[in-house]
Structures are given as structure tokens and as C-alpha cells.
Amino acid sequence: MAKLYFHYSTMNAGKSTLLLQASHNYRERGMETRLLTTRTDNRAGDGRIGSRIGISAEADTCGPGDDLFDRAKMWLQDADIACIFVDEAQFLTPDQVWQLARVTDDLGVPVMCYGLRVDFQGRLFPASAALLAWADDLREVRTICHCGRKATMVVRRDAEGRVLTQGAQVQVGGNETYVSLCRRHWRDAMNGASPV
To answer: Which of 42, 46, 86, 139 ranks highest by number of CB atoms within 10 Å?
Structure first.
């Protein structure tokens, strides 16, 4: 039975690396996969999923208005797809998450989504909230804070390294912009700010 999976974490936990490795495992066994990422994050290049350790692969892209159920049906006309992998799933819309759930239920294709759970202010991304609610299987990808505890939060920094407490929920960036922290050190960095 096909399932919708959500692999979630903070920044720099290795989500894209895991996605690329899992897809490689399928392909190594002769099974076809489709890779999908959002147009919002093109740090690895347009239509590419890239990892900080240097591996990458071509991927289809989607935007907020794209119907992912229709896209999957179209893919299945051309190939027998064993699994669909979605990177940067936090940038999907809740409607698109529901469409991916329908891919598993109605088309019988497993969908593995990888993304952030919360933003730099400690708030759920709308698509992440939908995935937490509707995914059949939730898997936390762990990384650590500088203190050695599990990192569950992330702070955003400006060009001078100052921690930002306000701003748009979506701002694409890497190690120069975001730092993963445990909740205690996130609270310290945010000067005691509450995510509520």
C-alpha cells in the first residue's frame, strides 16, 4: 500500500542528501523515480535538487498553482514510477499536499516529502502543518545545536550576523542565513521571543 511520508527537520540536517540517496537506491534496483522541487528554492540551480555535501540531481519543478495529482497522472502515462520524491515540501500549498495524498490513495504511488517543520519564528509552514496532519508516516531527520542537544528550531541572520526576529516567512538561504538551534538556545538568540 502506497503511503505519504514527511521527513522533516531544521536546516542543515541532510534532508536533500537523504532524498537523493533514497532515489538512487530505487534506481539502482531498476525502478523509476520522479524528483520534484519547488521553484521557490533554486540555490542548486533551476530544476535541481542539491545537497551541501556536493551531490545533486535534475528535478521537475512546481509552483503554487500547479496540480500535483494531474502531474503525477501524466508521469504515469509515460513510465511506471516506483516513488515520487519532493524536496523543500514546506513551500508547497496545503492543496498540493492533499493532491499528493491522493497520488498515494488513488494512483498507488508512494510520495516522500522532505522539508522544514517550522520557520525562523518557530511557526509551522502551512504545507508542513498539512503534512503533519495528513501524512501516513512522519520521520524526523535530526541535527544538533552547538551545545550538542537536538536542534528543533532555526534562527535567521542578516548579512552582519545579527539574529532577525521579524520578516517574511519565506526567505531562501543556506548556512550564511540560517542556524539550527535547540529550543533553549533559540529562545536566547530571539531574546526570549515566543512563537505565539
So the answer is: 86
Annotated ligand binding at 165? The verdict is no
How far, in Å, CA of 166 to CA of 195, rounded? 11
Residue with cell 542543515: 12
Residue 176 catalytic? no
For domain 4-142, the question of CATH label 3.60.10.10 is answered with no
Cα-Cα-Cα-Cα torsion 93, 181, 59, 41, nearest 10 degrees, comes to 60
> For 147-184, what is each residue's pLDDT tens digit?
999 999 888 887 787 877 666 565 565 556 788 999 99
Cα atoms found within 13 Å of the Cα of residue 181, Cβ hemisphere only = 19
Find out whether 150 is annotated in a ligand binding site. Answer: no
Set 28, 58, 88, 160: catalytic member? 88
